[in-house]
């Protein structure tokens, strides 16, 4: 899916493209901006298509890679692998941030997508537990760690790239391409998972069906890398690279001179980290395993919600350009504090229509955060440490609270017997993000440093 092909004739992006250039964006033609949008979209799409395939097929993967005597334990171990692969992401954030701020956004992004594509393809070829025993989950974990490392540079780099290429008054809209691409990856993953579970028998799905999404990621990733190698780094980065650097490495400068922004950014990411993986990745498993909804219907409900979510993302990006990042992010946190637990109560109504409407509501609430966060984080840090600041703050929160969200949600339900536990967990994340955003400065009206 190419968001620009579908939307470049629309008023918002047409206005963005015709906006006069500024000193921070230089003389950038429309064709270059289109390539930047396409390259950013495809890379993130491939990254999160893989995460979707793993999350939505978690029950099948649990049966393939772990002992099946205790399905609940196997599912917990599957989500445990998902969570452990996130622990490498802070390390990846430091490394990719350093590379992106030193050698350029384009080079870092081209390498990250190549690593992700290779690891994803290798997962598709892995034998299961029945063939090689515990070597199967160990190899699965190894390739998931490689994926987690590569993903640490993707979201941050693409956001920085887009913000630096965007017209000054449309940075929110352009940066919204990044969460839109992740949601589109999840959407295709949901559609494919729904199709596989409805068309294939359990035996066929566990034998070869689950491998198809991982095989598809390889050609898409190579296409994304090819597009990225044809781009130049942003005028803002090239200009910053000319300046005399007396601050040492980007990471050292970040920790020494921008530690307060780093802490606030990590706190602001918390709602996004928990919300994204609970609402968009874990939800089909929650609906089918905890609430007893038939698997195909649970995938269908998530798919419908994702379609509306993608549309809301771009509206949120435009809204943040008009109203400011802080106002939109604060609104998102307040809505999650007030409405999350009632929404989870409504999910247990037994009505498919209500389930779909609740998921649309939760998705719309999340877009207020998700659609604003990329531009907000990129604008918090000056150009010389932008990639590092974004990557470290984003990946630390995602490692501690995002990748662990499905595991924690499953564990909380198992330990407490309370089906509302994921809702309370999400509400707590919203409170912390609210405090962080209130303490931060508005960024949308300022030129990039």
From TrEMBL:
Query: Ranges of Polar residues compositional bias?
Result: 16-26
Instruction: List the subcellular locations.
Output: Cell membrane
- This protein's UniProt keywords: Cell membrane, Membrane, Symport, Transmembrane, Transmembrane helix, Transport
Disordered: region residues: 1-26
Q: Can you give the residue ranges of the Major facilitator superfamily (MFS) profile domain?
A: 36-445
Regions crossing the membrane: 48-67, 73-96, 108-126, 132-152, 173-196, 208-227, 262-283, 295-316, 328-345, 351-368, 389-413, 419-441
Keyword Membrane in annotation = yes
Topology relative to the lipid bilayer, per the entry, is: Multi-pass membrane protein
Which InterPro entries does the record cross-reference, listed alphabetically? H+-coupled_symporters, MFS, MFS_dom, MFS_trans_sf, Sugar_transporter_CS
Q: Which domain of life is it from?
A: Bacteria
Renumbered to this chain, the signal peptide range is: none
Q: Which family does it belong to?
A: Belongs to the major facilitator superfamily. Metabolite:H+ Symporter (MHS) family (TC 2.A.1.6) family.
Q: Which PANTHER family match?
A: ALPHA-KETOGLUTARATE PERMEASE (PTHR43528)
Indicate what this protein is called per its UniProt record: MHS family MFS transporter
Q: What is the lineage of its organism?
A: Bacteria, Bacillati, Actinomycetota, Actinomycetes, Micrococcales
């Amino acid at each position: 899916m190419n968001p620009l092909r579908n939307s470049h004739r629309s008023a918002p992006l047409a206005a963005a493209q015709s906006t006069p250039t500024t000193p921070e964006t230089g003389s950038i033609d429309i064709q270059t901006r289109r390539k930047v949008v396409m390259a950013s979209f495809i890379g993130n799409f491939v990254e999160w298509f893989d995460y979707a395939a793993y999350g939505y097929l978690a029950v099948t993967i649990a049966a393939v890679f772990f002992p099946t005597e205790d399905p609940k334990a196997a599912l917990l171990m599957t989500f445990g692998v998902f969570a452990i692969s996130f622990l490498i992401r802070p390390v990846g954030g430091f490394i990719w941030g350093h590379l992106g701020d030193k050698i350029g956004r384009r080079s870092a992004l081209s390498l990250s997508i190549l690593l992700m594509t290779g690891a994803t393809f290798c997962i598709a070829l892995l034998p299961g537990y029945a063939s090689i025993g515990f070597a199967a989950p160990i190899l699965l974990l190894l390739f998931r760690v490689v994926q987690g490392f590569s993903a640490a540079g993707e979201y941050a780099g693409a956001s920085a790239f887009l913000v630096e290429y965007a017209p000054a008054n449309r940075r929110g809209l352009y940066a919204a391409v990044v969460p839109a691409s992740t949601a589109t990856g999840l959407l295709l993953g949901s559609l494919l998972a729904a199709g596989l579970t409805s068309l294939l028998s359990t035996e066929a799905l566990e034998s070869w069906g689950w491998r198809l999404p991982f095989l598809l990621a390889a050609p898409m990733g190579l296409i994304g890398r090819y597009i990225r190698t044809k781009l130049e780094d942003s005028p803002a980065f090239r200009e910053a690279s000319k300046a005399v650097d007396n601050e040492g490495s980007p990471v050292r400068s970040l920790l020494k001179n921008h530690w307060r922004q780093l802490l606030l950014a990590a706190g602001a990411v918390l709602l996004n980290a928990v919300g994204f993986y609970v609402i968009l990745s874990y939800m089909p498993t929650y609906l089918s395993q905890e609430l007893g909804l038939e698997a195909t219907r649970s995938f269908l409900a998530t798919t419908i919600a994702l379609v509306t979510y993608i549309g809301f993302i771009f509206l949120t990006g435009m809204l943040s350009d008009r109203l400011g990042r802080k106002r939109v992010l604060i609104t998102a946190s307040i809505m999650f504090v007030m409405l999350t637990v009632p929404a989870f109560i409504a999910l247990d109504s037994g009505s498919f229509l209500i389930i779909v409407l609740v998921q649309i509501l939760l998705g719309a609430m999340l877009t207020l955060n998700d659609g604003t966060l990329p531009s907000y984080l990129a604008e918090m840090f000056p150009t010389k440490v932008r990639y590092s600041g974004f990557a470290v703050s984003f990946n630390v929160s995602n490692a501690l609270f995002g990748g662990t969200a499905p595991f924690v949600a499953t564990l909380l339900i198992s330990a407490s017997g309370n089906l509302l536990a994921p809702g309370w967990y999400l509400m707590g994340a919203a409170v912390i993000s609210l405090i962080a955003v209130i303490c931060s400065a508005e960024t949308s009206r300022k030129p990039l440093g």
